């Protein structure tokens, strides 16, 4: 069995780290034999940073950067002393923005004696999580590069493309729920209320705000036609603050267990996105998470969403300015059309629900991803 050392921002709280790595190597909070997680930021520091407003982030950005540098320096020195013929996995970046030369030197030494795997699931160049120089460094040094989509693969220089493996981000936490029981509970609520759910961090609120007026109009139409209420459950570290006349907005502060309960009790999972270089690199994780609980989805026809959503599980919405060449299927629908159709016909809704779970099992299952990571790291 090989030793596996995994570098993440925070193993429990960073979504990309948890759903791409922690849930396989440290399930239920206990590391599997041979694996160890290195969190650059402890839970308390991570939570503190994400509570900061724009002023706080400007004031404390330098101390936070130094914290990254020192914590990862300690981890690298520890691994350099203790690891031989093992596997080092890096999530996104060792140090954000710009990595010190000393860290690069230590990584080169580590890579000579161990297999280096670099995993990223966003356009980390577009959001400046990593510098172009560091991106090239990891492309060159890594033995294997794991990404979510062809778009992210295209960011890698062609001479390194043979290193790239594509692996979608998925969720194994929801598999404890019985799809039939979940569908029965949704049907009971469906008679009087239809719940939309959106789970994300506050950076995504900007994608949601423009749709609130259309959702409010949809709520009015749904009530007039069926007598049902439409609610939007926003599970996020910050609230969605908007005035509505008919739509009920329910803000729930994100905690992993709370988010699971909200998804299971909702009817429709949504993922709105504008079309730009950053969002085209999104891995469609929210949609896959919704689908794991047998939930139909509605999403913007942007990036990898086009590969996740099919007509038999939900709707793709072509937003204003979306590249038409990337759209297919149900892109002629509006958000209002899609919500009303899923909210007014239970048999149709139930059919799409079962199709969603089937598509998750066949294309985005937790077990397939776990098998990949165990094979690539040599952990039995």
What does this structure look like?
Helix 3 packs parallel to helix 4, helix 7 packs antiparallel against helix 14 and helix 9 runs parallel beside helix 13. Helix content is 44%, strand content 16%. With 380 residues, it is of the alpha/beta class. The N and C termini lie close together (7 Å). Strand 11, helix 12 and strand 12 form a beta-alpha-beta unit. The strands form 2 sheets. A 6-stranded parallel β-sheet has the order 2-1-3-4-5-6, with helices on both faces. The protein has a 6-stranded parallel β-sheet with strand order 9-8-7-10-11-12, with helices on both faces. The protein has 15 helices and 12 strands.
Fill in the keyword field for this structure.
about 375 residues, alpha/beta, 6-stranded parallel beta sheet, 15 helices
Structure in a nutshell:
With 380 residues, this protein is an alpha/beta fold. It has helices spanning 15-25, 43-50, 54-82, 101-113, 132-141, 150-153, 179-190, 205-208, 212-226, 256-265, 285-291, 305-308, 335-344, 346-363, 366-377; strands at 4-8, 35-39, 87-91, 115-119, 144-147, 164-166, 193-199, 229-236, 248-253, 268-271, 297-300, 314-317. The chain has 15 helices and 12 strands.
């Amino acid at each position: 069995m090989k030793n596996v050392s995994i570098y993440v921002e925070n193993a429990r709280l960073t979504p990309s780290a948890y759903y791409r790595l922690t849930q396989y190597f440290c399930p239920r909070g206990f590391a599997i034999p041979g694996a160890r997680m290195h969190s650059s930021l402890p839970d308390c520091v991570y939570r503190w940073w994400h509570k900061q407003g724009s002023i706080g982030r400007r004031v404390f950005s330098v101390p936070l950067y130094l914290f990254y540098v020192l914590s990862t320096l300690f981890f690298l020195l520890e691994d350099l002393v203790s690891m031989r013929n093992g596997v080092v996995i890096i999530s996104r970046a060792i140090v954000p923005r710009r990595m010190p030369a000393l860290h690069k030197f230590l990584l080169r030494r580590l890579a000579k004696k161990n297999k280096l795997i670099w995993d990223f699931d966003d356009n980390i160049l577009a959001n400046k999580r990593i510098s172009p120089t560091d991106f090239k460094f990891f492309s060159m040094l890594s033995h294997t590069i794991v990404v979510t989509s062809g778009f992210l693969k295209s960011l890698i220089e062609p001479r390194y493309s043979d290193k790239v493996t594509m692996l979608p981000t998925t969720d194994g936490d929801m598999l404890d729920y019985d799809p039939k029981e979940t569908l029965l509970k949704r049907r009971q609520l469906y008679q009087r209320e239809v719940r939309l759910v959106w789970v994300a961090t506050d950076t995504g609120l900007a994608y949601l705000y423009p749709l609130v007026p259309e959702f409010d109009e949809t709520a009015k139409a749904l009530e007039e036609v069926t007598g049902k209420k439409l609610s939007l459950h926003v599970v996020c570290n910050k609230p969605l603050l908007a005035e509505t006349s008919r739509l009920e907005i329910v803000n729930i502060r994100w905690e992993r267990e709370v988010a699971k309960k909200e998804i299971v009790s909702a009817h429709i999972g949504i993922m709105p996105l504008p079309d730009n270089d950053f969002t085209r690199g999104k891995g469609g994780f929210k949609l896959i998470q919704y689908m794991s609980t047998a939930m139909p989805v509605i999403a913007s026809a942007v990036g990898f969403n086009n590969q996740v959503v099919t007509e038999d599980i939900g709707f793709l919405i072509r937003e204003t300015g979306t590249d038409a060449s990337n759209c297919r299927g149900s892109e002629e629908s509006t958000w209002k059309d899609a919500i009303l159709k899923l909210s007014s016909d239970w048999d149709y809704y139930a059919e799409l629900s079962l199709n969603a779970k089937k598509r998750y099992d066949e294309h985005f299952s937790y077990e397939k991803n776990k098998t990949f990571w165990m094979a690539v790291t040599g952990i039995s």
